[in-house]
Each structure stands twice: as structure tokens, then as C-alpha cells.
């Protein structure tokens, strides 16, 4: 049945759509559109359901991405990807964990839609240039050129990635305790010299409109946040986008969350989400999957 095949591959399809779009709600819209199209397909014309669905989701996501990027040009303040709550096993797949990390998602935002699709499908999900060419309707030689350009762009802008670990979670917890205690020196000791805080309020909640950079300014900013709001919140550890994170609940409702990027035992970035529209969907643990594209007959990228 069409529904059974779609459900089987849904984690993979959601992961692709999310990495192409940077929003869980947008990814769900694309999956819904793709499912409706899938229901109209004669199964006898499809050689391999997963390959066909990946192609369909890719094309729908590309169409959606152009509209999404236009909306983001009018976004109030700093924009962050819609955070997704991830299970601990996501960290066991280093490629997957890096690909959904806040840092990588922000780098992907600097690519044009076609570059983003080519990079994600090839470098994250392992599809060949020929398969991607069939999916996006371009010549294989063109896809190779796009892949090279996109990879060079991404590598020039991303930091070295370290997968989440128990040590990373402990560093995040020590940071939160130091902030609650108002211990400036303890905070400074946990921050990298070039640490950055990026806050997303979407114009609907109080947040820094611009990134805060450097140990002294970040420490002061964090202590200010604690004095004004965090001291009255209940704080829960969590994982978002494959990163250690903290959920801040006020009156039982998720008020904001913070995700920590940690490298060499120091916090290099803090991503604070306060936009209520994005927080509304942040309680759902999203199953992510890179799939195994070299198994099961990828030759059926055509109807």
C-alpha cells in the first residue's frame, strides 16, 4: 500500500526535507505534498519506492525552499533553524549529527537552493552525481560542478565538528549552574575566546537582535538573561539537533531553549531559541535517518 511505503521511509524523507529547508513545519508540509502525489502513482511504474520518494521530496523541497528564502529576507533579528529534538542515537552517526547541527544548518542557509540540494544529497546522504542529476533535472556534469562549488563554500565556513558526548552534556550543565550562581569566572573558564551567542525571537519574543561575540560580552549577556528570566524557570537537559541543550519551562510551558556547541572542552557557540512559533513544535522527538542508498536498487530515480 502507498501509505505503508511512505511510512516506512518517512524518517529518511523528513531528514532530507528538514536539511533542505531548515524548518520542521516546512519539512512536514513538503512530506504532505509528496504523500498526496505518491498516492496518485501507479505502483507498477515504480522500480523502487524509496528512490522514487526521495526524488519527489527533493523536488518538492526545492520548490518550497525558494519561497522560504524570500520570507527569511524579512525576518526580524537573527534567524535560526527550527530546533528539532533528537534521540541520543543521532550522535552515533557523526555525519548525520553534523548535518543537522545548528552550525551546519546556518552554513547551508548561505547556499542557493540548488547548491544546497546537491550538497545535502551527495555529501550527507551519499547519492551519486548521476542520481542527483535525475532528481533535480540537470545534467550530470553540471551537478558535479555545483557539488564542487558547494563543498568548497561549506568547508570554508564551517568549524570542525565534535559529536555530542557525555562530557559535552556535563560542560553544558556546569555552565548552567555557574550562570545560576552568578559566577562570572566559572562562566569565562567554560567559554572559548571566540564564543558566539545567536538568539532567535522572530520579533515575537525578547532576544538579542545581533550575535553576541567574545567571552566577556557573552558572560555578561548570559548573566543578564538569568537575572531577568531564567532564575524563575525550571531547567531540563535535552538534546536538540544532535547537540547538548537545555529546555527552560515557565509555568510548565517551554519558554525558550538553548543548544550548546562544544569543541575541545569549551563552549564555542550558544544558540537560543525564543520564537514561540518554533518552540510550539520543539517537544516532539524527531526520528532521523540517513538511509542506506547503496542498498535496495537506487536505479529507479525515474517514474
Largest sheet: 6 strands, mixed
Q: Structural class, from secondary structure content?
A: alpha+beta
By CATH reckoning, the class of the largest domain would read: Mainly Alpha
Note the overall shape: elongated
Query: Helical content, roughly?
Result: 40-55%
Q: Quickly count the helices.
A: 12
Q: How would you characterize this protein structure?
A:
The chain has 303 residues and is an alpha+beta fold. The chain has two domains: 2-157, Butyryl-CoA Dehydrogenase, subunit A, domain 3 (Up-down Bundle), CATH 1.20.140; 166-279, Nuclear Transport Factor 2, Chain: A (Roll), CATH 3.10.450.50. The chain has helices spanning 2-21, 24-39, 49-72, 94-100, 102-108, 113-124, 129-136, 140-157, 166-181, 184-190, 215-228, 276-279, and strands at residues 191-200, 212-213, 234-240, 243-250, 253-263, 266-273. A six-stranded mixed β-sheet has the order 2-1-6-5-4-3. The longest helix has 24 residues, at 49-72. The chain starts with a helix and ends in a 24-residue tail after the last helix. The model is unreliable at 295-303 (pLDDT under 50). Residues 102-153 form the RNA polymerase sigma factor 70 region 4 type domain. This is RNA polymerase subunit sigma-24. It holds the Pfam family Sigma70_r4_2. One of its GO terms (biological process) is DNA-templated transcription initiation. Belongs to the sigma-70 factor family. ECF subfamily.
